[in-house]
Amino acid sequence: MEAADEIDWHRGIFEVLRAQGFSLAAHVPDAGHAPLIRMCEASAEVDCVTLTTEEEGVGIVCGAWAGGRKGVLLMQSSGVGNCINALALPAICRIPFLTLVTMRGEWGEFIPWQLPMGQATPGVLRAMGMLVLRAERREEAAATVDAAAALAHNGRQSVAVLLSQKMIGAKVFEAG
Amino acid sequence: MLRRRPSIAALLEDRPPELLAVSGLGSCTWDLCAAGDDARNFCFVGAMGQAAPFALGLAMAQPERRVVLFTGDGELLMSLGVLATIATRAPRNLALVVLDNESYVETGGQPTATAGPTDLAAIARGAGIPDVRSVTASSALPELRAALRAAEGPLFAVLKVAVEELPLTLPHSLDGVTAINRFRDAVLSPAG
Hints:
The structure holds 2 protein chains of 2 kinds.
Chain A (H helix, E strand, L loop, with lengths): L8 H11 L2 E6 L6 H9 L4 E4 L3 H13 L3 E7 H4 L7 H6 L3 E6 L12 H13 L3 E5 L2 H18 L2 E6 L1 H4 L8
Parallel strand pairs in A: 1-2, 1-3, 3-4, 4-6, 5-6
Helix pairs in contact in A: 1-2, 1-7
Chain B lengths: L3 H8 L7 E5 L3 H8 L6 E3 L7 H11 L4 E7 H5 L3 H9 L4 E7 L2 E2 L5 E2 L8 H8 L3 E5 L5 H10 L4 E6 L15 H13 L4
Parallel strand pairs in B: 1-2, 1-3, 3-4, 4-8, 7-8
Antiparallel strand pairs in B: 5-6
Helix pairs in contact in B: 1-2
């Protein structure tokens, strides 16, 4: 069995999304998503859209679905707050909306400014009617995204997967 | 100064089957509905700032269709960053038509930034959108109508329109599920 730290969970997520027919990834870059973003950019089958702010990704993913394409929004937890009113669109239209959120402001966080939005993230998403799943361990990351994507599209739901900071690894800063 | 409803009607005259229209919340939704109910329209009645991102996603998903967004200065000002995103993606089939009346009419006519120093056409140009047009006379509408159907996008047009009190014309349904299902069926139907 593969050791946990050898599992390429970014690759696993990319493969389950491709297997479910996702062809659009909208993102505000985050270090925790960087390997997945690189895979999307390298793929001829995936359009990778860099956003200026996360809420743009809500409209893009919803518009793409109206046109018959599956998309996903990749963001850091700090971006979730930017999306709140935009989430009315998938909520009221029951558009399948999937977002993968790399968590900050929890396990081992060094930057206190990340705490308020990081801690509020699950509550904010639920307050907007989203289903919230969470991956704590590398072994479960791909399977959780697989389940969330199916839940979103089979059930026409807005679904978020929180990728825990413990799994991603907290950013380490050297004091200057 | 243009009048908004005759302008939209002129731009949609002899509408080709492949033209999909999206409207931003507020006046533009009532205007698009007043031009005639059509399953190929998706009209925002909320989620301010989301109309342009939605139109971008739609254009990316439907490269063989033309996607035209009708929105107002107030709605677009809420999400100006999307102009940079659109310019960067550069979908050839997307056109943004901004009906700029320099005010938030729905909420009492408070001035928007375009009543002052802000120039949306200059912002669009600065964002990197290659085809930016300013329209101030109805005589220019036929040329814009042709461009919406054939010009290589992304295209951004600002129409300076008068402040008018117009009757409310509601969409086919205010229920989001009904509205998006009808629209998506029309978009994905091979005949459309």
